[in-house]
Structures are given as structure tokens and as C-alpha cells.
Amino acid sequence: MTAKSYATLDGNEAVARVAYALNEVIAIYPITPASPMGEWADAWASEGRPNLWGSVPSVVEMQSEGGAAGAVHGALQTGSLTTTFTASQGLLLMIPNLYKIAGELTPMALHVAARSLAAQGLSIFGDHSDVMAARGTGFAMLCSASVQEAHDFALISQAATLESRIPFLHFFDGFRTSHEVQKIELIGPEVLRSLIRDEWVLAHRSRALTPDRPVLRGTAQNPDVYFQARESVNPFYGALPAIVQRTMDEFAALTGRAYRLYDYFGAPEATDVVVLMGSGCETVHETVDYLTAQGSAVGVLKVRLYRPLDAAALVAALPKSVRRITVLDRTKEPGSGGEPLYLDVVAALSEAWEGDTLPKVINGRYGLSSKEFTPAMVKAIFENLASDRPKRHFTIGIDDDVSHTSLPWDASFSTEPDSVVRALFYGLGADGTVGANKNSIKIIGEETPNYAQGYFVYDSKKSGAITVSHLRFGPDRIRSTYLITQANFIACHQWLFMEKLDLLAAAAPGAVFLLNSPYDREETWGQLPREIQESIIRKNIRVYAINGYQVARENGMGGRINTVMQTCFFALANVLPRDEAIAAIKTAIQKTYGKKGQEIVAMNLKAVDATLDHLYEVPLGLADSPIRRQPPVPANAPAFVREVEGPMLVQQGESLKVSQLPCDGTYPTATSQWEKRNVAQSIPTWDPDVCIQCGKCVAVCPHATIRGKSYDGAALAEAPPTFKATDTRDRAFGGEKFTIQIAPEDCTGCGICVDVCPAKNRANPSLKALNMEEQLPLREAERQNWDFFLKVPNPDRRSLDVTHIRQQQWQQPLFEFSGACGGCGETPYLKMLSQLFGDRMVIANATGCSSIYGGNLPTTPWSQDAHGRGPAWSNSLFEDNGEFGLGFRVSIDKQAHFAAELVERLRDRVGDDLATALINADQRDEADIWEQRDRVAALKGKLAGATDPDALQLLSLADYLVKKSVWIIGGDGWAYDIGFGGLDHVIASGRNVNILVMDTEVYSNTGGQSSKATPRAAVAKFAAGGKPSAKKDLGAIAMTYGNVYVASVALGAKDEHTLRVFLEAEAYDGPSLIIAYSHCIAHGINMTTAMHHQQAIVESGRWLLYRYNPDLAAQGQNPLHLDSRSPRKGVQESMYAENRFKMLTKTKPADAKRLLAEAQKDVDSRWQRYQALVQLHEPKQPPAPEAPPNPDPEA
Amino acid sequence: MTDLTTTYLGLTLRSPIIPSAAAPLSEDLDNIRRLEDAGAGAIVLHSLFEEQLLREKFELHHHLEYGTESFAESLSYFPEPDEYHVGPELYLDHIRSTKAAIAVPVIASLNGFSAGGWVEYARLMAEAGADALELNLYLVPTDPDRSGAEVEQLFIDTLTQVRQEVTCPIAVKLSPFFSSLPHMAKRLADGGANGLILFNRFMQPDIDPEVLEVHPQAHLSGKGDLRLPLRWLALLHGRVPVDFASSGGVQRGRDIVKLLMAGAKATQVCSALLRHGIPYLGVLEQELCHWMEEHEYATVQEMQGILSQRFCPDASAYERAQYVRAVSSYEPTFDLETLR
Prior knowledge:
The structure holds two protein chains of two kinds.
Chain A: E1 6-10, H1 11-21, E2 25-28, H2 35-47, E3 58-61, H3 65-77, E4 82-86, H4 88-103, E5 109-114, H5 129-133, E6 140-143, H6 147-164, E7 168-173, E8 181-185, H7 189-195, H8 198-206, H9 226-231, H10 234-255, E9 262-266, E10 272-276, H11 280-293, E11 298-303, E12 305-307, H12 311-317, E13 324-329, H13 340-352, E14 360-366, H14 375-386, E15 394-396, E16 406-407, E17 421-428, H15 433-447, E18 451-457, E19 466-474, E20 487-492, E21 507-516, H16 524-527, H17 530-538, E22 542-546, H18 548-554, H19 562-573, H20 578-593, H21 598-614, E23 616-617, H22 639-649, E24 682-686, H23 696-700, E25 706-711, E26 726-727, E27 737-742, H24 752-756, E28 770-774, H25 775-791, H26 805-808, H27 827-837, E29 841-845, H28 849-855, E30 872-874, H29 881-905, H30 907-910, H31 912-920, H32 926-943, H33 949-957, E31 965-971, H34 972-978, H35 980-988, E32 994-999, H36 1034-1039, E33 1045-1049, H37 1055-1067, E34 1072-1077, H38 1090-1099, E35 1106-1108, H39 1110-1114, E36 1120-1122, H40 1132-1135, H41 1139-1147, H42 1149-1177
Helix pairs in contact in A: 1-2, 1-6, 3-4, 6-10, 11-14, 12-13, 15-19, 15-20, 18-21, 19-20, 19-21, 20-21, 27-37, 29-33, 29-35, 31-32, 41-42
Chain B: E1 6-8, E2 11-13, E3 17-19, H1 23-26, H2 29-38, E4 43-49, H3 50-65, H4 89-101, E5 106-112, H5 120-127, E6 132-137, H6 148-165, E7 170-174, H7 181-190, E8 195-198, E9 204-208, E10 213-217, H8 227-236, E11 243-247, H9 253-262, E12 266-269, H10 271-276, H11 280-294, H12 300-303, H13 321-326
Parallel strand pairs in B: 3-12, 4-5, 5-6, 6-7, 7-8, 8-11, 11-12
Antiparallel strand pairs in B: 1-2, 9-10
């Protein structure tokens, strides 16, 4: 056995290290939670790190998981050791190839971070739904239950596949294992060498397709032989379990870590056994240890090799004494006779059990979508099993009050030993809490003999996101794969959580509570809400505080309180003696930041020293605070929001019962308005005297939290005292009053409105018409002003000139208060669409950022107007969004057509004039639409009470006589890559759909992976060395059809151009494609000045503004208009204002220089190409009439 | 045959014409070769900016951390490479490759505003092969409580620190804004400077009244800009025991003649090359040679300092009194100094 080497890392990295070392070709595509494995592979290849054979693997990003599977299949067929990483929908897309790869006995190890499948809703979290969908492919399936096992089984699966020729699907639980940070023993290169025999590699290569030894593979087979051929592989599957076990045994000899195909732990004479696989095994194992120590005859059987299932080995692994078995499945197959593992175990027992009485077997479902699975639940499962009439096909972890499947459990039951330090940290994403905690785990894991575990729970929001870190440290291996419920250290890094969350619910008696308090030593206690005070006294909690922001600010750290709070943790948590702990932090700071510069190290070190001087213990007083915890939503919110979404908002969604949730995934809109997040430190205030009422601030606001309107001044009679108003400047609304109002509790404080405000205070040019001020002192008054503003009647939509931003921005946004990033570049486009067409639009939204801030529970920003109309929204998948939206169009057209047929059929009853008007309505503008709505109302009035089938049909379809606007929305990952085939088909269809591509030039939602929209020279994940190829020109491709309206816009560069494009695209009776430049946090830019930056990008020619309108061609005009001017400056200046380009100069300077020059050429040649296109589309002048013969030869 | 050889900072230069520190001229190795081919006496590399390096470090750090660890699907937005070139490594590589590519001396330029850890870069530059260092000290004093003496001491401290780091020659590029430039020059010489370059050019902000904004702008120097270095070269030549170089204002060969006569050992050229291209350096050399031939100067050294104040036939021409005489025909008969 070799010397042990430890590291603290997460499951993805643990797997990627092995997979990278053992492969030659790696095809990748991003999908949560598996993306980091591909990211590691790309980053290592970019650094030139070699694999086991001393060669750098070729890493290739594909356009979809389907594409990755195809590339993998091809690379395997031509002899390379090949792998890929995926999860969930990605695995589903790979399934066709998996059958092929297995059918051809091709060795590979595919690594899957197992995740839920989208059904009634998408979930990025972990369960076995995806891998269970692949269990028929012929891949062997090996399951890891922990980070250590994931590391080990990545190797075991690779060795076993090479020996057996059966491809492996190695899986581990998404998030719980893929993202859990654990201290593990690393596999050294000598172990890899010992287990991976070159003879197998050579054998694999010898089967490669090569013209030097030509063969044919992939035949079409007929009824005469297909069946026999299918059965020909049986010996390989038959031999596999023994191969895997032998590999495990060899591995154990080398490392001391022993595994069995089916590993039993527990009482040797156990009567009751739980069988399961995945990370839940660890929790059951921990609970079994606890219960057996108390004398219970219980055990756990961990299934490692799920396919092929070795029935004999599985049964043999069970103690002979077993009488009752619960098989737990982390998946759901509605309508099946039981979940898959259960059915397999039942079959195995019936075939291989040799005892007298077959044990009783029951089935339970647990842990779907990373649902908590705790020792308390395990105890309940054993109790159910031991009861006289155990519940079969039960669920655990939920309260199923509909089908009554669920088992009750005693949540107070805990198996956590006192020797484990259990720490909980509540932070904001922006404050660096998680990063600091990951650092702490590394410090303790790598600098001390302690074991360490970290698991992180994130928010559904991208701005102002709450993070909860669960850290455990202890002398023994930590098996607790569940959240901490008995914490002996709790830190609240943000005061604003005090009134929102039950922070001390998980505090153990005598715990330490650390606060980042803006108040001083004497004030802090009195500022705590009474509920917190009561918990502190009841649980005998010691309270410490520091003004973390002050210390951070004074030491140059800005809003990053990570180092400050981390130092406090080490000073208080007693994991290490204080001096040693502080020294360890300092060493870690050097390690973490050293490569970024000694100044950054020095800044952090200074903060560490300053922290200890400012940390103090809070003297406790009486629990008499007048401050009380606030309800998550106000009492006047709709019942569903109050009762269902409210608990989700305060991290109590676990308590919701099955009956409270919609059974078909249908949720109400207009719900984000009830969620007052108060995440902004500062908000804009309006100076009516300076304002020029241009509407730009309203147009760019990503969260619809700044609004303007013109209204009858009489409304001001009821105005709150601080409500501001001035005369409307727009002459068309002369005599009216005008107000710009901020929603103080919804604003994220991004400041983008202030940045675009063109109106400077002439007396003091450092002030504008909008200026940022601290939110807290303004909150109460502005809340009242906002409520009043909403009550002031909106201008009549028919009276607005929507071709100009100034008036158009008075339209009510029906997209508001999303959870998108502060300063998001996508959401202003959606808001504008919702203003223009929201009351008649239906949206197909590709999976991605927009489906997350648009549809991630609890609330949605898609809203409704006073008539209850608003965008109807749905997300199908990532890859099919074009087709999904086309389905909307075809269906809606059909319904409208049928409605018109029915009107015609019922003309006599409807009335001639009304029928004709209904059918022939033009509906070109807002006024036309309103008239048609009136006609539809009249129609319904005439048919009211009718009972004949035609009338009933028409009543159900009448609203379709009002024009509906179909919008297909998504990002560049969808439009340029995974959904491009569908998008292409949809625009080729000629149907009237509007496609908005919010082009962030990167897969934003999954953390910034390169797409085909990524420009050359940009650093992105999967393009760590800078993207070597040019951005795909999607617009140019679409223009080749000739009948597609195509436009490229950048709101920050020219807002009225965007507006014009939206209006033209919607009006065009055919497919429209709008490609909208969307700045993104993944660009590494200043998000506050991002709209101005768009101007610089357009001025450099890196982004073009243009419109291609086929209607103009039909009118004999040039359909293509270049709306941006010729590039006035090189691309360097604007590119190097973005970290995605700039960082390449810091990582690969020579490449950066070369790619910059090439990027400039891309821009130059594209500009020339577009100019040539304009020329090409110039209408041909009719030939000049021949000169008439000169009648006067003398002339 | 005209001999353009000069000595500057102890280095023998084949010509007194050297391109001054400017990224467009010396960032690219091909341009450096072209400058050498055009006749440059030495190459002053573009400056390594303390402020820029520092800013870029913090910027990179900020962007790599901003928005991370907030949302489960996007825990970061950029790959995290093992290594960053955030220090002077790239600049040092540039010194090494420049040294390997050309034969004329290579002067590295360090641009800073404070004494501090970054002066270590000076040692690294020398180790990378720089034949001399040009220290570009600049500070726009804005604090009314900070005295001139304090600012001057800051400069001296910085120079002293750099001097301790390196043994190679150091030239200090100065601003003209000192109460007593000769005294400051002497202190710098005492502090270990081997040469002084007159003068540094600052970014001069402009105001756009239409949008009520201030824009920093860099202006190329013009003909009129010659006068300032000319006067101070002439005043300092022979009084302060260092080599002087000029910077700013050279448009034609004749301008070089003037600067040499005022006391420059070398004349730095930038704006003319940015305007007319690198080959213009050859034109300047031709014009210089032509003038020297016409006026029968065989060597540059014959001209150097001949019209500095110490040697000039009318020494007062360089002093303030000259302005008074320009507007009055009265010739004082006593020494004005004695009245003070």
C-alpha cells in the first residue's frame, strides 16, 4: 500500500481527476450538476496537464448532450479512450447512443451526477430518475455513495469496462455528492497504473475502425438474425460482476479501501435490512451504527453494481437472519408495480433466496430532488418495517395528505456525535460566505487530522441570493449526508435575515451565535427580533458580534466580509486553538490569493488582524424586543401566495403538504409583487426638477422597479406627503402630472438607471435626475409612495405613441421583480416585450437563465394587468423551445380559425355586422385590438346561456379571435447550439412566430460555458484558453431564407432601435428572429455601466444593429438596413473592459495578442460583408428607357 | 563622415536619437526591430505602470469573485487557471526577448508614484537584462496639506529604494513642476540618478461643456513643446553631474541640434514617430547629419552643451529677465538679484 495523500474536494472534482487521467478524448456539454467535471477537464487540458500516458486529452465541447454522445461513440469506435459527463435531460439525450455503444461492446466510463428529470417542473437537484431511465441501455451501472467512493469508483468503473468491454455508467447523487466537499484519500498515479492495464487499452484500440484493417459496424439487421445477435453478448454480462469484484479487491489491496458489489453493514444477525444505493446509504449506515449500538438487529445493504444485477451476490450479501427488507428508491415510476430497485431486489430474492421463508419486502420512495433524508427518517423506516402492518410503497420525507403514502418521523431524533463540530452559516451570495467556508474546510481538512464536510444550500434567486453553508468537522469519517439540524455554531452574516428567517431553529443548546451586526455592543441585543431573543435565552446560546462590513470596508475589502467572518468563526468555534487557527487562515490566504498578487494577500491579512480587535461578546438582556419576525408575504396577498409560496420564501417549503401543491405544474402569475426582498443597500431617488422625462431609466431597469407615468393631477389629492410629481413635459399630455417612482423594496440597487440617466444637475454636475441614496432611511416613505403610484391610473394604452421610448415606457410592465442578477442585460428586453404585447402574448421559454428567473419557484415575475390579462408562459425543455413555440402558433391559429368558422356558422345568431367585423378585424394596433375585444365581449353576450354544441364551442374559443402574439424566447445556448436545428425548422416554416434570442454569448445559467455565440478571444468555461473560433452569425444564416424578419439589437446602444425592431417583428406576418445583445455577469464587467458599455461595443463594430424586413423587399425597397455606423474604433478598448477578454492577457498573453488581432479581423470582415449584403439587396433599378429618337436632328 | 556617437548613462549610443517610452512603439518586437533598423541609439521600452498593475490585479480578483457562490447552477463564471501573469513577468519576458533581438542598448522604464514593494520590479528588470532603467516618477499633488518638500522627499525616497535594488544606471524622468528644479535635480543626482530626462508629459484633462464631463486626454507634443526642455537642459547642463536627455517637442532634425546644443546627451522622440511612423526616425537622423555636415560638425559631442547657460554667449537669455527685456528696451545697469 502506498502512502496516504488527502485532499478536500467535491464529488465532481474527485471524479474528474480520475476520468481526465484515464482518457484520451473527452466530449463535454454543460448541465447542472455535472458541468464542473467538464470544466475541470477543459481547464486542465488548457494548462497542458497530461493523462496517465503522458499525453494531454483532447477536450471537445459539443452542441448538446446528444452531440456529445455521438462524438463519444465516434471517438470510441476509432479507438480512443473516451468519456463524457452529464446528468438528467442530458443523459436522456444520450440514451440512443448508449444503446449503440453497449450493443457494440465498447468500453467507456460515463460519469453521471444523478439528477431529477423535468416532469411537473424542472429540478436541478439530485435523485435517480435520470439513471433509471438509462437502465435498459446495456451499460453497466455502478453507484457511488460519497465523494470518496465517487473518486474510487471512477477508477474501478474504468478498469472494469476495459477488461469486460461492457461500458459503464458510473453515477453519484447530484449536489449531495457532486457538490459536497469532503476530505478524501486521493488515488495516486501508481494505483491508476496498476489497475489500468495497457493490454486492455491496446485491445480496445485494436478494435478501432481503420482503413488499415477495414470492418463494418452498425449494420441493419433483420428478423432472421437480430434476436440471436442481441443474445450474443450475454457471456460478457455474465462475466462482469466477477470482474468488478476482482477490480474492487485489487483496488483494496492497493489502497486499503474495500468495496463489495453489494456491501452489507450492520448487525450480523439482523432481521430488518434497508437496501438502497447512492448517498442515502451513508445516512442509513450512520443510523444503523447508532441503532445497533443500542441493540437493534438492523442493517443496510448498499447496492454498488446495479447493472448487471448479480442476484446471487446481492442475496448472498444479506444476513441469513433477515426477515424484513425495505428497498428504497430515489426515483418515481408512476403506475409501476414498484420502483426499479425494489422490483430488482424482489426478483433477486425470488430467484436466489435459499432460506426457508422468503423475507418480506416493501418499497419506499425518498429523497426526490435532493429532498432531505435524515437518520430520523431512517429510524421511521425501520419502525414501519417492524410494525405489524407496514406501509408498502411508502414515501418518507414529505407529508402526503393526498394518497397517504408518507411515513411520519420524529424530527428530533439525531445520531450526530458530540465529537463533530456542526456549523451553520447564513450569508448572501455577494458577501463571499460560501467561498470562505470552502476555504475553512480546506484549512481544517488539509492542515489538521480532522475530517471535514461542507454542503451548501443556495437560493432560487440570482440577485440578493441567500446561501446556507453546512459545515461539519470531526475526528472520524463523516457520513452525515443530510443538513445540520443540531448546530453548535450558527453565524448570520446579514442582519436583514433576522426579521425573515428562523435562524436559531437548528441551534443546539449552548450553541455559539455569531452576528454581523451594524450596531454596537450596547445596541445589538435590543435590535434583535423578539423571537431570536427568546431562542437565545431558551437555548442558552452565547452571542458574539462584529461589524463585519465596517472592518471589511476599512481594510479595502468593500462588501466582501468573507475573510472577516471566517476569522471570527475560527476564533470562536474551537476547532483549532485560536493562534493556530489564525495562523492557518493566514497560510490559506497566501495559498488562495498569492497567485493573484501580494497586494490582495496583504489586504486579507490586514482584515484578519483587524477582525480580532473588533469581535465582541454581546451582553444578553431580556426578551423584550419590540421588533418581531415579519411574515414572508403581506396579509393581503392571495391565499396561494400566502400559504404555499410564503413558506417557500422563508425556507420552509419542506413543510408543505402534497395537497397544497398543484398536481399538474400549473402556478399563478403576478406573484413576485408579494415578495419584498429589500436586497438593495441603496436605491435611486428622483429629482423632478432635473428630469427630462426621457424614459431611459425605466427602459433599462432589469427589475421593473423604476416606473414613470403621466396622469391627471387630481389624483395627487390623495398622495402621501413625500410623493413627488412635476408637470408632464410631453406636449401630447400637456396639463398632466408626471412621476418617476422607485419600488424601494424590490429594487436590487444595481444603479444602471442612474448610469443611463442623461440629465445632469446644472448646478452640480455630480448629481443627475436620479441619484443613489441609502435605502433604509427611505424605505418606509417610498413604500407608501410606491403603493400610491400603483393606484394612480395608468395612461390609456390607446393614447400612447409606442414608437418612442418616452411614452412607450408609460406602459405597464407585465414582467417585474424577477430574481435575475442585479443589472441583468436580458430582463429589460422581456420587460419591454411585456409592456408592448404582454396582454396578448404567450411565451415558450427555453431552459436557461430566463426560465429560471421567469419560472423558478416560489414566485414568478410574469404579471397581469388590471383586466387580469398577461403573458402566459411555459418552459418545455432546453433543446425543443423553437418547436414548442411553433406548436403554440399552429394550435392558436387552428383555434382562431375554428372560432371564425363557428362565427360564420352562427352568423345569423351573431348578427351580420358583428360576424363580419369579428372575422375581418385588422388588429394592427392597440386601438384595433381593443375594438376586437369589445366585439368578442359582444359575441359572448349574444351567446350567453346558449346550450347548443356550436355555441358552446364558440364560447370556449371566442377569445382566440383576438390576435395572440407567440414569442419564443431563450438564450444563445439554446438558439445557437442545442436548439438550433429546431429554430432553423421553425423559421423555415414561415409561421408567424417571434423569436427573441437574448444573446449573452455564453451559457450563463450554468456558469459561463462557451457557446457558438461566444466571440473569438473570450475566455469562458470550456474555452479556458480563449475561444479560438469566431462567433456564429445566426442573423446572417436566418436572412438566407428571405422570408424571415431578422434584426440585431442592443438596448444600451440604441433603445429606440430595439423598440422599433420589437414593433416591426411583431407586426411581420411570418417568422421573426431578434438577436438581442445581453450583457451578463459572466462577461466580467461593471454591471452598473453595462448599458453604456453596449454603446462602446456597437461603436467598435463588435455588435451590429440591423434590420432585415422582408415586407420592404415586397414593396420594392431594400430589406436590409444597417442601423449602426461603421466601426469608429478598434475592438481592443471595449474588449479589454471585459474580464472575459482581459483575463487571457493574464493567463496566456501570447494567445491573447494573436486572438485579439484575429477578433479585429472578424469584426472588419463582418462589417464589409454586411455592407456588401446591403448592396446586394439594393432593389434593381428598372432599366432606363431607351432615349427616344431625336425628332430634331438639328438639336 | 558624421559621427553621431554619444554617451548616455555610461552607455555608448550610436546615435543620440532614441524613441521614448511609449507602448505603440515598443510593445511589439517587430516595431522594436524596425526602430533599431531606422537608427535608434537605444530602445526605451514602454513603461511598466505600478498603478496599472495594481489596478489590474484588483480588477481580476474582483471579476473572478463577483457573482460567485450565489446560485447553485452557476457557482462561478470563469475558469480558474493555476497561474496568472499579474506581476511584471510579461514585461520581464519582453525585456529578455528585446535584448535577444537587437544590438543597441535596452532601457526599461518603470512608472510609479510611491515607494513600496513594487520597486523590487527594478531589480527584476535589471536581472532580465535591461542595460539601464528609466524611472518615471509622477504625482499630481492634490492635497493642500502636503508640502512641496514632502512630495520631493517621496521622489527621493523612491529613487533611493530603487538605487538599493540595482547597480545598473538609472535615469529619472521628471516633471517640470518643481519650485527649484536645479535643486531637485541635484538631490536626485545625489540620490544616485545617473541621468535626468526633461520632461515627463502628463495626461491633461479637458472639459466637455455639452455633457458637463471631464475627459482625460493625451496630446501628442508639437513644435512649441521644445522650448521647455530646451531651457532647462541649458540651465542644468554642467551644473548637475548627470547625463541629460530631452523628451518632447522633437519634430525635425534641427530640433535635435538645438537640444544637443542646450546640453542633451540624448534626445527622446515619440510624437513625431507616432505621427509619421517608425521610419521617420531615419528621416530625423538624415536631417541631423545633413545639418551637421552643412555646419561642419563632425561629431555630436562637439555640439553638446555649447549653448547651455554656462557656455552660452548670453547666459541671461535662459533666465526670467529675458521676458522683461523682450517688452522693454531698457537695459539694467545693475544686478537685479542684489535688490532682492
